[in-house]
Specification:
The chain is built from 8 helices and no strands. With 172 residues, the chain is an all-alpha fold. The model has no long low-confidence stretch (mean pLDDT 87).
Length: 172
C-alpha cells in the first residue's frame, strides 16, 4: 500500500501540531509520581544507620561484659575497634577511661575523658573524674576548673566536698 501525497501531508501536519502541545498545562498540579530511586536510597541509608547503631551498642555491651568478667585486654580491643568506627560513642569512651583508671594509667584515660567531657558537657561525674585525673597528673588549674564545674553542675552530689578535701590534701 502506497501513501498518497495527501496522507503524507496530513501526517506531517499532525506531527507538527502534536509537537506544539505543551507537556505541562499551567495551573494544574504536578502529578504525584514518587521518586522511587531517591526513596530507596533514603531507606537504604536509614537501614544502614540503624544497623551501625545496633552493632555499636552490641559491641559496647560485649566489651562491658568481657571487662566485668575480668578480661580487660579483650575489652580494650573491642572498645578500640568500636571507637575507631564511632568516635563519639560516649558509653565506650566512659568504659575505656574506667579501664585505664582501674589499671592506674591516668595518662591513657585522660584523652578519653576530655572527649567525653566534650560529648557530655552537662555530666558532672565526668568533670569530677576529669578533675581528679588532672590533679593526679599535676595539672592543678585544670583540676580545679573541672572540680568546680562538677560542683556547679550537681550541687547536691557531694562533688564540692570532694573538691575541698582535695584542696586540703594539697595544702598539707
Amino acid at each position: 500500500m502506497r501513501a498518497t501525497p495527501i496522507a503524507v501531508l496530513l501526517g506531517a501536519l499532525m506531527l507538527t501540531a502534536c509537537a506544539q502541545i505543551p507537556t505541562e498545562l499551567p495551573g494544574l498540579p504536578e502529578p504525584l509520581v514518587p521518586d522511587v530511586a531517591a526513596e530507596r536510597k533514603t531507606r537504604e541509608l536509614e537501614v544502614a544507620q540503624s544497623f551501625e547503631t545496633k552493632r555499636n551498642e552490641a559491641q559496647w555491651l560485649a566489651a562491658r561484659s568481657v571487662y566485668r568478667s575480668g578480661d580487660a585486654r579483650q575489652a580494650e580491643r573491642l572498645l578500640k575497634a568500636l571507637l575507631s568506627r564511632a568516635p563519639d560513642h560516649a558509653p565506650a569512651r566512659r568504659l575505656v577511661a574506667e579501664l585505664y583508671l582501674d589499671r592506674d594509667e591516668p595518662q591513657r584515660a585522660l584523652p578519653h575523658l576530655e572527649i567525653l567531657a566534650e560529648l557530655t558537657p552537662e555530666d558532672a561525674s565526668v568533670h569530677h573524674v576529669l578533675g581528679f585525673v588532672y590533679d593526679a597528673l599535676g595539672n592543678v588549674p585544670a583540676a580545679e576548673r573541672h572540680l568546680q564545674l562538677a560542683a556547679e553542675l550537681s550541687p547536691q552530689s557531694g562533688f564540692a566536698q570532694s573538691r575541698d578535701v582535695l584542696r586540703q590534701a594539697r595544702a598539707q
